[in-house]
Amino acid sequence: MNVSNGSGSTWKCTTDRTNWNKRPHCAAYPFVVPEGFFDTFPHLVQQRAVTPKARTFTTLKWLLRPTIAVAGVALITFLLWQMPVKVQPDDHNAALAQDWSAEDLVRAGVDLRSVQTLIGPEEGVLDPIVLPKDDHAIFAYLEQEELPLDLLTEGL
Amino acid sequence: MADHGDAELLALFRQEESRHYAFNLLVRQYQQRLYAFIRRMVTDHDEAKDVLQNVFLKAWTGLDDFRADARLYSWLYRIAHNESLNHLRKLRKGIFVSNEQVMERLTTTLDSSEHFSGDAIQRKLQHAVMRLPDKQRAVFTMKYFEGLRYEDMSTITGTSVGALKSSYHIAVKKIEGWLTTDQTSDK
To answer: Which of A126, B34, B151, B155 has the highest Cβ tally under 10 A?
Structure first.
């Protein structure tokens, strides 16, 4: 078969494998081509070109892609909408959640003994306030700290 | 089979009654040359067949819009060039597929005796060509094996003649270097 090489000149190649090595171009061609491949190939291509099946599949594929994409986005949106919103603690809860010192609790009028009973002795809410043994020093401390005096009797 | 001119093929293709006949002529006229290029790019016969089929299927759908001022052969070669590069790109697409693995696959196919009938020198040269990056390999193949002119290659690849000359020159130097190194290490 005469084949144009696109630059004006022509050379010959045949589908017969024995002739591959006889042509200047084919001499350097070391790849094996199955016998009769170039005889059957045009029919194969033509069959594929005119078979609507492949083309329909391609069209379907292109139609399916955006459909799947839209469905995916809708599903994600639905799932996000369905997800429970994390409840933010209100100010009161937030205040309770804070790490209060015994002093803060006393200032806020909280009964430390009942707190101690509730949380157990090992937690030691009352521990931070260690009253000095000297009475005057105790009174001075309570006044300085503006703590109620009845704490003294309970503490002792 | 006699060669048919572009104008003749296109005229036949544009008539409904001779459309299939014209396409058959076109495939018969260009299949070997395009196959030769694609095969050098992808190595494996079955893969080359698939790529070549895609080239002609694209030609089938695009021939109606083909401009008469362009050359049919350059246009087909351009499709073949792009399809070959796309095919090689797809091979590398997998997350765990490295360039080395793809090169190994190509050279393994090449080393298989049922696919390659060349002598030791041709095999060595082909191995060296395999080591080139895809685009450079295409340039080298077109120039060295197919003997295309730079102007035609420019139309096919969409790259300037200067860039193609430079790419080819670098490819030749690389291959020379590899072949020399291999020869030295063989001794």
So the answer is: B34
Residue of B26, B131, B36 whose CA lies nearest to A31: B36
Q: Do B28 and A42 touch (CB under 8 A)?
A: yes
Radius of gyration of chain B (CA): 18
Which of A2, A13, A49 is closest, CB to CB, to B60?
A49
- B40, B45, B73 ranked by CB distance to A4: nearest: B73
Mention every residue, 6+ apart, whose C-beta is less than 8 A from residue B9: B22, B25, B26, B29, B72
Nearest chain B residue to A17 by CA distance is: B117
A67 versus A15: the higher-pLDDT residue is: A67
How high is the pLDDT of residue A146?
78
Cβ–Cβ gap B74/A6 under 8 Å = yes
Give the nearest partner residue to A6 out of B36, B116, B148, using CB atoms. B148
For residue B72 the two structure tokens come to 């049919």
Residue partners of B58: CB distance under 8 A and separation at least 6: B79, B83
Chain B residues touching A53 at Cβ < 8 A? none
CA–CA separation, A100 and A105 (whole Å): 7
Residues in chain A within 8 Å Cβ distance of B27: 41-42, 45-46
Which amino acid makes up residue A121?
P
pLDDT tens for B168-187 read: 999 999 999 988 886 655 54
| DSSP class per residue in A76-97 | HHHHHHHSPPPPPP-HHHHHHH
Residues B85-144: pLDDT tens digits?
999 988 877 666 677 777 777 777 777 767 777 777 888 888 889 889 999 999 999 999
